[in-house]
Amino acid sequence: MDYGPMSLRGKTVLVTGGGQGIGRTLVEAFARAGSRVVAADIQETAVAAVAEGLCGQGLQASGAALDVTDEQQVRALSRSLLDSHGGVDVLVNNAALFSTLTMQPFDEIELDVWEKVLKVNLTGPFLCAKHFAPIMRDKGEGRIINVASGAVTLGRPNYLHYIASKSGLVGMSRSMARELGPHGVTVNAVLPGSVDTGIQRETVTPEAKSRIVAMQCIPRGQVPQDLVGVMLFLASDSSAFITGQSITVDGGATHS
Questions:
Q1: Residue 94's closest CA among 194, 151, 24?
Q2: From CA 185, how far away is CA 119, in angstroms rounded?
Q3: Which residues, including other chains, have CB under 8 Å from residue 125's CB and lie 6 or more apart?
Q4: Cβ contact 198:233 at 8 Å
Q5: Residues 6+ apart with CB under 8 A from 65
Q6: Where are the beta strands (DSSP E) in 119-204?
Q7: Is the pLDDT of residue 208 over 90?
Q8: What CATH code would you report for 4-249?
Q9: Torsion of CA 118, 101, 197, 210, to 10 degrees
Q10: pTM of the predicted protein model
């Protein structure tokens, strides 16, 4: 399938957290839009399976083991992709901790949990941008898309570590856009709503899900495919003059 003006044929796209949920859906979408997709995840077997499935359909995809909090691993992957693909044209910082987090008052969050969430959700995207953006800058073009969260504007309670990390990612996107704009590299944040990824979250009840849907202008549950259009747009040449923006995709649950 070719997505017309949003076709990414010939582009190299790196999606972190590409082994499941939103990341897997994006890997599949970018591959079908004509990209050479690299699915990176700490779960090596998961991304290997995703890549194998896409290659079996005649699409271009590969898997890479990556812990985004390990700078040595990020640096090594950037060098490897520079040698094999000339770097990446699009970086999607999607890897994050959320589904395994327990909802709890902020004063009950243990410090080690707080630090782990910020390390994965904020330091991870920083490290990936640190090592992949210079290659884009040298080429004079590139796209960085940071997956934040609509919960930032909602001010969702009992997830303060997660909200703080995603708020930081929004701010980082804006500042990074200023630094990279003169070099043809755009940086934007996408803020999904409550996406049903199929991953179980023990602390989220069916009643809680119903309350979220009731807040939306579009009264149905959000699925990963709802993010595909905006992601392809921000990765394509059609969005070349859009940078430093935070785009919320949550069915109208929030208005920002």
A1: 24
A2: 25
A3: 16, 68, 93, 95, 146, 169, 172
A4: no
A5: 40, 41, 42, 44, 47, 73
A6: 142-147, 185-192
A7: no
A8: 3.40.50.720
A9: -120
A10: 0.94
In which residue are the tokens 């856009």 written?
A: 177
Q: Could you confirm whether 162 is annotated as catalytic?
A: yes
SS3 assignment, position 185 = strand
Residues 6+ apart with CB under 8 A from 15: 23, 26, 27, 30, 37, 38, 39, 40, 92, 94
CA distance 192 to 237: 22
Mind listing the pLDDT tens digit for each residue in 81-138?
999 999 999 999 999 999 899 999 999 999 999 999 999 999 999 999 999 999 999 9
Q: DSSP secondary-structure letter at 110?
A: -
Q: What are phi and psi of 61, to 5 degrees?
A: -155, 150
Q: What residues have CB less than 8 Å from 107, skipping those under 6 apart?
A: none
Q: How far apart are CA 176 and CA 250, in angstroms?
A: 24
List all residues 6 or more positions away from 209 whose beta carbon is below 8 Å from its beta carbon.
194, 196, 221
The pair of structure tokens assigned to 254 is 């929030």
Of 162, 180, 226, 250, catalytic: 162
Residue 157's SS3 state is coil
When pLDDT is cut at 50, 70 and 90, the band that residue 46 belongs to is very high
